[in-house]
Amino acid sequence: MQEEIDQRTVSITVQAAKLSGRVLKAAMTAAYQKMQQQRHSPKVGRNSLKKLAGHDGGLNTIEVSGRLRSFERYARKYQIRYHIEKDVGSKPPVWTVYFKANQADALTAAFQEYTKKDLDRSKKPSLVAQLRKFKELVQSIGKDRVRNKEHGGPER
What we know:
Alpha-Beta Plaits, single chain, alpha+beta
């Protein structure tokens, strides 16, 4: 019973010199309108397939292989509603991205920016590869040096 009451509780903060009935009514009306607006406006970003198909308009799909997590940032930037499903049987993994048909232009712009960033990332050398190279370089330098063990002094 207490959880049910907690879930239905709404907090409204009003800053006023004198709290009258009219000010309280206006604050409650504004809060109610905002809640109604959020309820009826579709959520931007990742949605369930049921919610995505429930809104007006058809669904389009596109298959993506490779890094998909970084694509989600661009999809939210362009306010695309989408759903992602992973194809289990394929190696390397392939994802199917479902999106609204009326958002094709926004999706095209998001994919262009995503692929540009992905190509730039592929041109840069890997940090792990650079670390391996420097590790080998340090090991080869270390083999050439002879330590002065008699006195515990610095290397010569």
